[in-house]
Amino acid sequence: MATASEADGPGASVTVHQGGRQRDFVASDLPVTFGASADADVVLDGVQGNVQVGRLDETFFVQPGRNARNVRVAGTALTSTRALRDGDVVSFDRARLECRIAGSVLAIRVESVVTAGDTAPPDLDLLARGGRSAEIEITPIAFKPAAASAVRVVKPRVSKATVAVATAAAVLLTVTWFAFTAKSVTIDVEPTPTTLSLPDTVFKLYFGDRFLLRSGPHRVAAELPGYYPLDTEIEVGSLPDQTIALTLTKLPGLVTITTEPEVGAQVLLDGMPLGTTPLTDTELTPGPHRLEFSAERHLAEVRELEVEGGGERQSLAATLTPDWAVVSLRTDPPGATVLVDGNEVGVTPADVEIDSGEHEVELRLAGYNAWSNRLLVAANQPQQLPDIKLAAADGRLELASSPSEASVSVDGDFRGRTPLSLRLSPGRTHRVTLTKPGYDTATRELSVAADSGRRLQIDMTAQIGEIAVASDPANAEVWVDGERRGVTPATLELTAVSHAIEIRQQGFAIERAELTPRPGYPQRIERTLVALNETSGGGFAQTLRTSQGQELKLVPAGQFTMGSSRREIGRRSNEMLRPVRVTRAFYLGAHEVTNAQFRAFKATHDSGVFQNHSLNGDDQPAVNVSWDDAAQYLNWLSVKDGLQPVYEQRANAWVPVIPLRNGYRLPTDAEWEWAARFAGQETGLLYPWGADPRPPDRSGNYADVAAAGTLPTTLVTYNDGEPVAAPVGRYAANAYGIFDLGGNVAEWVQDFYAPDVVETTERVDDPLGPTTGRVHVIRGASWRSATVTDLRLAARGSGVEGRDDVGFRVARGLQ
Questions:
Q1: pTM value > 0.90
Q2: Which helix (H) or strand (E) holds 256?
Q3: Which of 203, 220, 247 lies at the terminal end of a domain, its last residue?
Q4: Are residues 709 and 789 in the same domain?
Q5: Under a CB-based contact definition with an 8 Å cutoff, are residues 542 and 551 in contact?
Q6: 11 vs 187, more confident
Q7: What letter does residue 27 receive in the DSSP assignment?
Q8: Where is 126: in which H helix or E strand?
Q9: Which end of the chain is more exposed for a tag (fewer CB within 10 A), N or C?
């Protein structure tokens, strides 16, 4: 016999029984070779070549070896590797290998050499040498059986004693074999069953609480009242002493569930729907359970139940509390219709069921004013309201005025503004007063009949004042409250309320005034118009405000040299010198766009955290914003403020529309450098604070001593008090009133980035950079900056995606 374990691992073996001898092969010996040669593991007589038996993963296999002929498995010729199954017979010339597989055990019994008729094929040698089947002659011979009377059969006689001895010997051998091969097994069933058996196991012995069983599978059956019958298969292993634990499953309990009152409550069992009450003999698993009851117009009820199980019957009745109360109403006179939240529910006197909570209760009766009140109802707590005396119906007055929006008082009490619907007590005179700034007060006395309607239109008399408007130069348009009223010089008669007056002339700044005319006292406005200068910004507002409250400062036009000299310390190759002229003044945000402002556009924006320091404060600059994100925010802000969006999406990229529209945008590379380096300076600044490479304390936000523990490179003697981005505007502004242009965070500008900038002496007006590209220019130092290269105002970086030290600010051209 042969034994092998899983994947030829530890414990795998092959045992071969041959002629009364037994040989064992362990895992390291596999595969086992059967053949006629002297080097075969198992030598067979009368065979040619050899075969091998082994194990791969969990499958035993056989394969032909050298010079093997006429190998068959279960009668089928073996030409390659084949899996072995329990009961397969390998025929090998004149030998037979009988295979038995039990789990990971393979047993091979080598039978004695058999005749050629059992296994040998026809003589193929002759055919192989060119012979023909016709040359093989089979000659039949006559056969005649002997007469029956001539045949004498002699039957051997066996004594009873011989049979008894043989039987006893067989039994003894069987018992001995079983005793040597059986395993001691304890089958531990919890709880202890009333019956326990192994119905399909023939060879078994039971001693005390242990079984003697052969290795392999066995069927176990057990029963105990109140539990499901156990019928399962166990696997007895190769260990001599084993314990196998099994568990009986308790039968469910039979539970009847009802409610008081019985209202068809929905029941949840441990959070899962169970059904609608009443529920009879519902099967529930043994153990604790939570039952939740919910029914229309009743409070939810929760009960705990310990289910005994084992087929035992239990009952549970839950008492439900009404989620409403009876409210009693009486009126004088009776017969009023009762409405709750606008729905009719009865006629007084009435006892009305009203759900718990706050409700609007109204009583209506023809010829009487409606009565209404807010009523708070508590669950299952009846209320008796005091008797309600209904008042005779008011008269109705529909009041209008010209102009509208006049304030209305009735008998000295303010009642609203026209147009207005009034309810007045019948049978008496009321004093109605209308007032409006710029108009004479209007008063009327009137009465109305009960439950009647009346309309009243009052035309108010305007109070007029005179205002003369003049301008230099003359012929400028005069606009009052957004309406054109003539050209200068002009005399206007206006109501005695505040008016917004504008004087407009093409090419000149708009002059504005707020004035309230005074009847009988003429007034005069004279203005010298200031010519608009698109270069200096003269005539344009020094500050604009967006709808988000951001300040944009006016930056005059000018001419300068971009870039840096080759002799400048820290200079990069992308800073080539080139003369540039900004031909028109423009507006630039005084501060970088903050998190709060950006989140108004994109509520989910997260600027992130650096080394446990938050970058998400409302007043900190918005970072981790890509260039495309910035362009979309500026478009959103433009639309919000009634301006034309500057950017359009083309081929999955956002690009500015040329010529630039009047909406909000990013500054160009040239505009940013002009505003940062030449603010009130004839010679451009080297650093935001001047020419000295050492910044004065708190001159801006850079990588300082506060960031020494978090950044690899810092300014060892500089302290600005901030380890990461600071709230915008914390440090001093430049000459244009613009903050943080050279620190806090670096900033996106509009231009595509080109690393191969060419140095030139030819001046370029209003450069916009390359027309296409993927990467955009980034300008300015940040809270991460500490080197001479990065701190210089001429330094240029680039990028596509957002960074934790890159933000942006708003720019806009002249209106």
A1: no
A2: strand 253-260
A3: 247
A4: yes
A5: no
A6: 187
A7: G
A8: helix 124-128
A9: C
Q: What's the mean pLDDT in 194-202? A: 90
CA angle, residues 771, 774, 775, in degrees to nearest 5: 100
pLDDT at 516 over 80: yes
Does residue 778 register a pLDDT over 60?
yes
State the pLDDT at residue 51. 86
pLDDT in tens, 32-89: 888 877 778 888 877 878 888 888 767 888 888 877 777 888 888 887 788 888 888 8
What integer is the mean pLDDT of 334-354?
Answer: 93
What percent helix, strand, coil does the chain show, rounded to 5? Answer: 10, 40, 50
Segments forming the whole domain that contains residue 508? 464-528
Sign of CA dihedral 726, 729, 732, 734: positive
Counting beta carbons within 10 angstroms of the beta carbon of residue 153, is it exposed (0 to 12), middle (13 to 18) or buried (19 or more)?
A: exposed
Q: Report the half-sphere exposure of 460 (CA within 13 A, side-chain side).
A: 26
Residue 149 lies in a domain: no
Residue 139 lies in a domain: no
Q: Are residues 758 and 645 both part of a single domain?
A: yes
How would DSSP label each residue in 41-75? SEE-SS--SEEEEEEETTEEEEEE-TT--SEEETT
Does residue 591 sit in the same domain as residue 639?
Answer: yes
Which tokens hold the place of 420?
Answer: 């207005």
Q: Which of 213-217, 499-503, 583-587, 661-665 has the lowest mean pLDDT?
A: 213-217
Are the beta carbons of 287 and 270 closer than 8 angstroms?
Answer: no
Does residue 168 carry a pLDDT above 90?
no
157 confidence band (pLDDT: 50, 70, 90):
low
Where helices occur in 678-761 by DSSP H, the ranges are none
What's the CA gap between 584 and 813, in Å, rounded? 8
Distances (CA, A) of 582 to 52, 306, 538, 667, 674: 92, 86, 15, 12, 8
- Give the separation between CA 494 and CA 521, rounded to whole angstroms: 12
What is the Cα–Cα distance from 622 to 806, expressed in whole angstroms?
Answer: 8
Least confident of 124-138, 309-323, 401-415: 124-138
More confident call, 454 vs 491: 491
Per the CB < 8 A criterion, the answer to whether 54 and 30 are in contact is yes
| Selection from 554, 578, 804 nearest residue 669 by Cα | 578
Number of domains, the chain: 7
Contacts of 491 (CB under 8 A, 6+ apart): 466, 467, 468, 469
Same domain, 216 and 279: no
Nearest to 408 by CA among 444, 438, 452, 447: 444
Instruction: Give me 26's structure tokens.
Output: 């362990």
- Residue 53 pairs with which residues in a beta bridge? 32, 62
Please say if the pLDDT value at position 811 is more than 90.
yes
Structure tokens at 131: 């012979």
For residue 23, the domain's CATH number is 2.60.200.20
Q: Which helix (H) or strand (E) holds 165?
A: helix 160-181
Residue 173 counted as domain residue = no
Phi and psi (nearest 5°) for 812? -160, 145
Residue that terminates a domain, selected from 99, 122, 145: 122
Tokens of 194: 């009333």
pLDDT value of residue 12: 67
Asked if residue 628 lies in contact with residue 654, where contact means CB atoms within 8 angstroms, the answer is yes
Q: Which regions of 473-557 does DSSP assign to beta strands (E)? A: 477-480, 483-487, 490-495, 499-504, 511-515, 523-528, 543-545, 551-555
Same-domain check for residues 741 and 640: yes
Element (H, E) at 259: strand 253-260
| Cβ-based burial of 454 (10 A; exposed 0-12, middle 13-18, buried ≥19) | middle
50 in a domain, yes or no? Answer: yes
Rounded average pLDDT over 549-567: 94
Distances (CA, A) of 536 to 503, 584, 652, 666: 22, 8, 38, 21
- Between residues 105 and 500, which one has the greater pLDDT? 500
Q: Does one domain contain both 43 and 190? A: no
Q: Coil, strand, or helix at residue 177?
A: helix
Facing residues of 308 across strands? none
Q: In terms of Cα–Cα distance, which of 606, 662, 614 is closest to 635? A: 662
